Structures are given as C-alpha cells and as structure tokens.
C-alpha cells in the first residue's frame, strides 16, 4: 500500500498525534506510520489526511 491508497481509504480521517520522535510526530493508520516534521505539527493537527498530504514527511509499514 502506498500513500495514495491510504489517502483514498482514510482521507477524511483527522491527523492526530500518536507519538513523538526526535524529528517530529506520527500517527498510525491501517498498519502504517505517517510521519510529520516537528515544525509542521501545528498545521496538520486536526486536519484531514487528504489535506495535509504535502506536509507528510514519510510513510512506513509497522
């Protein structure tokens, strides 16, 4: 699964912080970790995933 598939399936889900690391925050969706850099946290928190796509730093399978 790639980011496009996740956005189609979960695009209306709001970004909420599940955990932090030294570079930013991430949320878990459908077995994947969506990472956003620390300086973008205030922008994406509460925003639908389909709208915060440009600010997503990485996507990792967990």
Written account of the structure:
The protein is of the alpha+beta class. Helices cover 19% and strands 32% of the residues. It has helices at 3-10, 41-44, and strands at residues 19-20, 24-29, 32-37, 56-61. Strands 1-2-3-4 form a 4-stranded antiparallel beta sheet. The longest helix is centred in the first third of the chain and has 8 residues, at 3-10. It starts with a helix and ends with a strand. The mean pLDDT is 93.
Average residue pLDDT: 93
Q: What share of the residues does DSSP label as strand, in percent?
A: 25-35%
- Major β-sheet, in short? 4 strands, antiparallel
Instruction: Compute the number of strand runs.
Output: 4
Lateral strand order in the biggest sheet? 1-2-3-4
Query: How is the quaternary structure best described?
Result: single chain
Counted by DSSP, the helix tally is 2
Instruction: Give the ordered list of helices and strands.
Output: HEEEHE
Overall geometry: globular
Q: What class do helices, strands and sheet pairing give?
A: alpha+beta
Distance between the termini: 12 Å
Gyration radius, to the nearest Å? 10 Å
Residue runs with pLDDT of under 50 for 5 or more positions? none
* Helix amount: 10-25%
């Amino acid at each position: 699964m790639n980011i496009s598939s996740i956005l189609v399936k979960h695009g209306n889900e709001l970004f909420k912080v599940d955990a932090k690391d030294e570079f930013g925050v991430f949320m878990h969706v459908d077995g994947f970790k969506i990472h956003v850099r620390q300086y973008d946290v205030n922008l994406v928190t509460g925003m639908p995933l389909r709208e915060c796509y440009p600010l997503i730093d990485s996507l990792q399978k967990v």
